[in-house]
Write a structure and sequence with these properties.
alpha/beta; globular; 195 residues; Lysozyme-like
């Protein structure tokens, strides 16, 4: 556990010091009974397979031009957010305070609890569902996960595919769970069972 002064240097009102902030209007209060004990890892690119174009940031801030690409028509009017987004180069963005409820999980259930948005922190990795991720993304992901675990009572990490099986498939088979586990030095019980 970090000393209180180190923790306060990293966090202020749920905002992480090393993230580039861009506020999303898509969030709400967590229930009073919520215990922030889960990190949910996602993958996203807009349009699919296109990177570093600012479209994900526009989606999370309700600024996406629905007519800019045919794929966006399938998402028209969608209001979603994640706490964090990690680009292919490892740059970290934050859209919602971790003290608040971001809209990333949707209908979900994990470790006997439903509505995972209530008690989780959502982290989106720029990438294709099932595709590979960059070393810089793993480095940033491990850093922010470690910081979250020092500040919140995180005991589990899972993918969107694990909390919404059959409905979601990200981050998918290209995500290296053993690499993340090794980086964080956590026991297998903290992670989803993998085949």
């Amino acid at each position: 556990m970090s000393p209180p002064e180190a923790e306060s240097a990293l966090w202020q009102d749920g905002s992480y010091r090393y993230a580039r902030a861009q506020a999303s209007p898509n969030f709400g209060q967590r229930p009073a009974s919520a215990c922030i004990d889960l990190i949910v890892i996602h993958s996203i690119s807009l349009p699919p397979g296109e990177f570093d174009n600012g479209q994900v940031q526009r989606l999370f801030t309700n600024q996406l031009d629905w007519d800019a690409h045919p794929y966006f028509q399938s998402m028209r009017g969608l209001q979603v957010s994640s706490h964090f987004f990690i680009t292919r180069s490892g740059q970290l963005w934050q859209f919602v305070s971790c003290d608040a409820r971001a809209w990333h999980a949707g209908e979900s259930s994990y470790r006997g609890k439903s509505n995972c948005n209530d008690d989780s922190v959502g982290i989106e990795l720029e990438g294709l569902e099932g595709g590979l991720f960059e070393p810089a993304q793993y480095e940033t992901l491990a850093s922010v996960c470690a910081a979250l675990m020092c500040h919140y009572p995180i005991t589990h990490l899972a993918g969107h595919e694990h909390i919404a099986p059959g409905r979601k498939q990200d981050p998918g088979p290209g995500f290296d769970w053993p690499r993340l586990q090794d980086s964080l030095g956590l026991p297998p019980k903290c992670f989803p069972a993998t085949p």
